[in-house]
Amino acid sequence: MRKIEHIGIAVHDIESANTLFSSLLNTNPYKMEEVESEGVRTSFFITGESKIELLEATRPDSPIARFLEKKGEGIHHIAFEVADIKSEIQRLKNEGFTVLNEEPKKGADNKLVAFLHPKGTHGVLVELCQDATPTP
User: Which positions fall inside the VOC domain (predicted)?
Assistant: First the structure.
């Protein structure tokens, strides 16, 4: 794992959260994006070498909607940048972690992503992410 890539925060209203985080971080989001397959709208802020990702549900059956209903607004996940997501998934499976995605899937911000079940990580949903565009 290279670094903390971002911290995901579930919010009910991404526009009001954007206003708050813009004021808090003294910068505007650099990107907003909808990931239809996950039923989520995202907004990204850069802070130092990491990012903050705000997540708003776009449909009531999405993972973010279920999270908000159960736990309310707050930290949803922590994401780690990896060099080779497929080998990292295999390594973590070999270490006994429960991987929720056998194969990486397309996520927001041009990333391939996979998640570890929070029951095996002290209640923290862990996201692995790798740039989807290979570097030359």
Answer: 3-131
The pLDDT, as a whole number, for residue 4 is 96
For β-strands 3-10 and 111-116, DSSP reports them as: unpaired
The DSSP secondary structure of 86-136, one letter per residue, reads HHHHHHHHHTT--BS-SS-EEETTTEEEEEE-GGGTTT--EEEEEESSPP-
Domains and CATH numbers, the chain: 3-131 (3.10.180.10)
Does the pTM of the predicted model rise above 0.85? yes
2-60 tens-digit pLDDT? 999 999 999 999 999 999 999 999 999 999 999 999 999 999 999 999 999 999 999 99
State percent of the chain over pLDDT 70.
Answer: 98
Residues 47, 114, 41, 69, Cα dihedral to 10°: -100
CA 63 to chain centre: 12
Instruction: Report the alpha-carbon distance of residue 45 to residue 68 in Å, rounded.
Output: 21
